[in-house]
């Protein structure tokens, strides 16, 4: 009882001090600049080095971009061209994939800088920095952002598009900023077609603000549109020449294809799932914000309705457009699509809530957000090694033994034929891993489908031969599989098609490989789970 009474008195005194502490405008400018550089630099180094230290296989999107980008096209079967070109260029310049983890943080940290610069137009310096640090509590900006994929590239392109857009509407050098707005808008769209929701939101700003409507009387918006259109035009032409194959992929991913069994319930359940999951993600930083800054400032904010409308529309507009799409079509929204929608959560919260800032509240908030980022790092460490390597039944992309498999099938092919391996056929995971990791750098033929791999000539495949790889195994794949082999999949139709078309296939082989985890972790935890891989050869023709 005495202990509880003492604890109550201690908490009450701390609470009274917390509530009565003087308002703080922040440290001197030079000190705040140092803290900004230190925080963002620390973030960059931590999330660049962590995946390099714990991953021994790369994410499928990294490998897929390398395969795509190695073929100079203005579009690919899933995405536009910018992401593939960036992914391939980073690999080509360094000869390895480790650079992709640093480059992913160039996009993330660069996006944070753009958010900070935009916030500085609307908020005091300290609150601008805190609005960026608040994003550290959003788990996709930590764990998911380790992977250099189109969703992560959007975290860099979207904020700079918004920053230049704001400058185009409010600064004196309007023409320059309008052109930059168009360039970055085009790049955002050509990284991923989902960028359309950002463009719709930006157009809404033009329609529903006085400054936006006034801009239509100038050349700026039209120059921006022209720049974005010129960047996108090559892809539009490519889509037309390739039967809009990327749209087929998007429709299938949203469960809107002809084979999808949609009902009225999908128009409710799919949007609801999206709202619930998104709310769970932003709840962490918002909870920390209101815990530290529950008091609102009594100072009247400067009257600038444009800033509030601008951030309000661009903070919630892309997510609202996505939600409307799901409501109207009943389509399923992949959660990774909406990752860039939360970039302005911090700026919106500080701008509209106008919290009372004290030294203690800032220290507690920074400690919580840095601590949360470190927690996410620990989760990432144990998820990528212990859980995915040793416990999880399904093998994730980053634990797939791609390097060992590539070395093995390349060596077996050379023993059999005495020539380099020219082609690898399989699903994305198998073909991309072998295409990148094999010393022979074979061409990847995704699911033996010319629509997915426009660069493949099947006449060359017949002449030179190649390897076919499978991770999903079916009954009868080999005469006597080991007892613990998982045989739950169906034989792929494309394999039957190759056989019917007269490709000369070898018998099927089965081999077991340990999952990819770092050597230092196997010293602590032992041998990881193993994966059975099946493969056969397309024998070269005469």
Overall mean confidence score, pLDDT: 91
Q: Please tally the β strands and state the result.
A: 5
Class by helix and strand content?
Answer: mainly alpha
Q: What is the C-alpha radius of gyration, as a whole number of Å?
A: 26 Å
- How many individual domains? 2
The count of helical stretches stands at 21
Helical content band: 55-70%
- Record the strand order, biggest sheet: 2-1-3-5-4
Strand content: 5-15%
Tell me about the biggest sheet? 5 strands, mixed
Query: Span between N and C termini?
Result: 91 Å
Helix and strand succession?
Answer: HHHHHHHHHHHHHHHHHEHEHEHEHE
Q: Which parts are unreliable, with pLDDT below 50 for 5 consecutive residues or more?
A: none
| Shape, per Cα inertia axes | globular
